[in-house]
Fold this sequence. Notes:
6 helices; globular
Amino acid sequence: MILLAEDDPNDELLTVRALKKLGIGNEIEVVRDGAETLEFLFATGQHAGRDPADLPQVLLLDLKLPKVSGLEVLQKLRGEALTKWLPVVVLTSSSLDKDMVESYRLGANSFVQKPVNSTEFSEAVRNLGLYWYLINRRPNGKQAVAG
């Protein structure tokens, strides 16, 4: 599964559409703010019935999320054994160097600025999906905690 943390409905639609073209449309979970992202990953709140060790293959994380910022989410994830190795791709409209540097400092695996053009945006997401979902390998939550 891919977890998409995105509050912009247009970006969500473009992202989901691009991933569906790869044939992984049924494997996308969408959360719309930073608090819900943390609830999903740690199986609390409205996601309390979920197995917290069943982590996504990758988290596509917007930085400008309501409630809890993407940077705060990233910091929390890297501080917990269960999510320390979860691949996180920051997918943001920010072009600020400080956002990129801080994302990497906090443990992002990749930083991608969202293209403004919808065709380029879809192509960027498709490439991210190909690599992080279909090619990249990572330990699951149970393996990461045990190892």
